[in-house]
Each structure stands twice: as structure tokens, then as C-alpha cells.
Design goal:
The protein is α/β, with parallel strands linked by helices. It is 29% helix and 14% strand. It has 5 helices and 5 strands, in the order αβαβαβαββα. It has a 5-stranded parallel β-sheet, with helices on both faces. The longest helix has 19 residues, at 84-102. It starts with a helix and ends with a helix.
Amino acid sequence: MRIRLCFAALSLIAGAGLATVSAPTATAAACTDIDVVAARGTFEPGTLGFIVGDPVYSALQKKITGKSLSSYKVNYPADLSLTSAAQGNTDLVNHVRSQAASCPNQRFILVGYSQGANVVDNSIGISSAGAVVGSPIVATIPTALEPKVAAVLLFGNPIRAIGKSVTGTYQNRTIDFCAAGDPVCENGGGDVGAHLGYTANADAAAAFAATKV
């Protein structure tokens, strides 16, 4: 019930028109130095995501100097359908593969919030099956492209509530924020508001990413 309230709150945010707040423009990535690939949360409004994607991209632009950045909004429903996260998983991996072929020197920063964190988890080979709004892995970033992923920034990651986390190849390049009491990422959490507060972590996430590029 608490998790449903989180998604209901995000739906209310969308309905309140907050997506009209000025946000960075998402671009179809050209051959920039770094492509920021953002998967928004369930029902999250905004260009890349009002709560996480937009503020994180703004923070990255300030923290990463001397390099050009582009952004890509993962194309998926971000709803409660059973295939939503899987569709995002497919789109993210296809985008990285396409960009890597077109821009061989480009690197990536992957950003995922809530269901979007499931999308990123799956794409880097960590299954979100069994987590809220999760899915089995349907595609993974090819081994040959793994070094191109500079950083992975996760917020309210649902797999944490089932005792999982990012391990293996990407572990040292990942920062994974779970606010105290967030029922989506903390088993037994009861603070719905905690799931909506990750804008506060944007600067810390960008500072982490800046050390990896």
C-alpha cells in the first residue's frame, strides 16, 4: 500500500503541472564526450525526470568541466504495466549500442530513479525481477562496451528492498541512494515522502560521476 501511495504521489505531481518548471533540454545525443542516459521513475514528469534526471543533468553540467555533455531520455512507458521496465531495458541498451557505433570515443553516465533504476539495473546485468515494477533482464550492454560506462547513478532503487545491489563489473562505478524510510528501496520503509526527495542528492551524485570521467 505504501508503495502504491508513492506512485500515486508521483502521478499527482504530474497532474499538478510541475513538469512545466524550467529543465535542461534532452537532446538526441551527438558525438559529445559524455552522454547522460536517464530513465525516469514511474509517472515522473519532466524532461529527463523532474525529481532526479533534470536536476542531476544540471549538476553534471556544473561538475564536469572541459567536456561536452548530451542527454537521452530512455523511451519507455514508466507506468505500472508488466512490460514497462523491460521496454526501458531494451531501449537503453539499444541506445548505448547505437551511440557507441556512431561515436566510438563517447562515454556514458547512466541515471535511474525508482522504476528507472530497475531499467538501469537490468541493462548492466543485475536482474530486477521480483522487485516492485521490476522485470527479468531482456538486454544487457555488451561486454565490449562496458568500459564506456563511466558512472551509474541510482536513486530509490527497488532491488535494494529485496536484498540486492549492483555487484561485479559496475560496482565501483555505481552510487546508489536509498533515503531512510523509502518504502520502494528499503524493506519495511514507511516514509512515502522519502521516495520523492532525491533531488537533494543531485550534487552528490554529480560529484561522484565527475571523479569517474
